[in-house]
Amino acid sequence: MAPDNGTEIGAADRGGIDDFVANFGALMAASGMPGLTGHVFALLLAAPDAQLTARQIGESLHISPAAVSGATKYLADVGITRRLRVPGSRQVMHALVNEDWYDILLTRNNVMEATRSLLLAGCQAAGGPDTRAGRRLWLNAELFKRLGAALGETMEKWRAERPGILAQLPRPDEDPRGAQPSRRVKDTQAARGLAE
């Protein structure tokens, strides 16, 4: 299941990656993500360059082109991935928008505020918090108010702390043991304008 997208995976444990994709995909499905979408998301998270073609996704997960299309469309629609054209080719890469979920969670924070506003409007329409329905709606609005505030605070901390956290890690193209990236990885990086 682990992708072989033309880059060296190095010390990656293909069996461990397969387990991660299966388990993370199942967790996302249990959380409400449709079909095999969570598996595709997990596969992109675990891919060395966080991008794969539809064919690579289908071959890695042993799923049909229609299933790949549905999953990648959903991920793009919710802002997790984007489609990239491979220069000089008809090929399309499905790539993660960001390495972490920062942008996705910021969007969710906006959804929480919109949900809170709708719940408050529903509370007023139901006769205010003095009625049983109004009380229930008001209580849920208060929950979303607190969830949104907590998420907002966490996202601000993450934005401030992220550079320091990343600074503690070796660069992805550096082997912590001092080995140099393979010629294939260097060529891929140069083609994408990633080489220094």
Describe this structure in words.
This protein is mainly α. It folds into two domains: 14-96, Arc Repressor Mutant, subunit A, CATH 1.10.10; 102-167. It has seven helices and three strands. The chain has helices spanning 14-30, 37-46, 54-61, 65-77, 102-125, 132-167, 183-191, and strands at 51-53, 81-85, 92-96. Strands 1-3-2 form a three-stranded antiparallel beta sheet. Strand 2 and strand 3 form a beta hairpin. The radius of gyration is 21 Å and the shape is globular.
Task: Provide a brief overview of the structure.
The protein is mainly alpha-helical.
- What is the averaged pLDDT score? 83
Q: What's the count of strands?
A: 3
CATH class placement of the largest domain = Mainly Alpha
Low-confidence stretches: 5-10, 175-196
Q: What is the level-2 CATH architecture name of the largest domain?
A: Orthogonal Bundle
Name given to the CATH homologous superfamily of the largest domain: Winged helix-like DNA-binding domain superfamily/Winged helix DNA-binding domain
The structure class reads mainly alpha
Helix content: 55-70%
Compressed to H and E, one letter per element, the order equals HHEHHEEHHH
